[in-house]
Design brief:
336 residues, alpha/beta, 7-stranded parallel sheet, 3-stranded mixed sheet, 12 helices
Length: 336
């Protein structure tokens, strides 16, 4: 039996689609009924009316990876684990929460994989853990983490989670780590890249000059499945289809949504002013803050990620990002 943590997130839900289509027996962890029902809507998007009942063939367990007794019970009979659960935030005030889920939660998963002699673990990390190349803008799987740069709290805790996985490997666990870029896929528009679709639909005017890696959710889940079912072990793989400027990515999203393209170039100074305004508002009025120093830095960094390793080892061809953006935009427009 296969265990999927974080089964109601973007990666987790689409992974369930893949696993069920491949006729696997699956146990999935979820935290709230609301999240589960959101995942059901996305899951059913990929199945005919006569197949939608397959969502209920999944063995659903209501718990999280911090609840060791419940998590221990969920591991009974498990042979393979896809660890997709994570907290995402760039707010330094949420460091302890991020650490508890991303690092301590991953340690719990790794420990139970070892105890239950799980055959293989796949951990979903991020390109955020790959650091920066001091002599080149090109980044690959060998680019070392640099603790001296101002990394976001998200990147720090995801890197700490990777260290827990490698610790498990040293203790005898077979594992693979995937480092996806910005994942594009339908279904969730209050987190991750989905927020961008919502903002652009609502009339986002500004873009920044940074460059990052993008990948389709279908590529992520297809590659994860092939890595877990093949003879791959104790390796990491960057999952990036294309390196795009934020300007180009936003233009594609706007065109797919039939909305105006963001035309105003934001400067670091302008974003810093917005940061201070939000900071004051969060302290005095308890309003939500969405801009942080680390996110400002990321917005202007030009990072180019190599994908040669996974393309070579799997003879894999990535889906064009424009195709994934169009699919995601169409799904979004059906919901509004």
């Amino acid at each position: 039996m296969i265990l999927v943590t974080g089964a109601t997130g973007l990666v987790g839900t689409h992974l369930l689609v893949k696993l069920i289509k491949e006729e696997n027996i699956v146990r999935a962890l979820y935290r709230t009924e609301t999240k589960k029902e959101e995942a059901r809507k996305v899951f059913e998007f990929y199945f005919s009316n006569t197949e939608k009942h397959l969502f209920d063939t999944i063995s659903w367990v209501k718990t999280d990876i911090s609840d060791i007794p419940a998590l221990t019970e969920a591991f009974n009979g498990i042979t393979h684990v896809y660890h997709c659960a994570a907290k995402i935030s760039f707010n330094p005030a949420r460091y302890k929460t991020l650490r508890k889920t991303n690092i301590e939660g991953t340690a719990n998963v790794v420990n139970l994989c070892l105890t239950h002699k799980v055959q293989k673990l796949c951990y979903v990390s991020s390109i955020a853990t790959l650091g920066e190349n001091p002599i080149s803008s090109q980044i690959n799987e060998d680019t070392e983490w640099n603790p001296e740069i101002p990394n976001s709290v998200y990147a720090i805790t995801k890197y700490g989670a990777e260290m827990e996985v490698w610790r498990g490997v040293h203790e005898g666990l077979d594992a693979v780590i995937v480092n996806p870029g910005i994942i594009i896929g339908p279904g969730f528009f209050n987190s991750g890249s989905g927020v961008l679709f919502k903002k652009i639909h609502n009339g986002m005017n500004f873009y920044t000059t940074g460059v990052s890696g993008y990948v389709s959710i279908h590529d992520v889940t297809n590659i994860m499945y092939r890595l877990m079912t093949g003879a791959f072990r104790n390796q990491r793989y960057i999952l990036v289809s294309e390196n795009l400027s934020f300007k180009n990515a936003f233009e594609m999203m706007a065109q797919a949504l039939n909305k105006p393209v963001p035309k105003k170039k934001a400067s670091p100074f302008l974003m810093l002013i917005a940061y201070y305004i939000q900071r004051v508002g969060s302290v005095i009025l308890n309003t939500k803050q969405s801009i942080f120093r680390s996110s400002i830095r990321t917005a202007f960094l030009k990072r180019y990620y190599e994908n040669d390793k996974i393309k070579k080892e799997l003879s894999y061809s990535f889906e064009p990002i424009e195709k994934s953006i169009n699919e995601t935009a169409n799904f979004f427009l059906d919901q509004v």
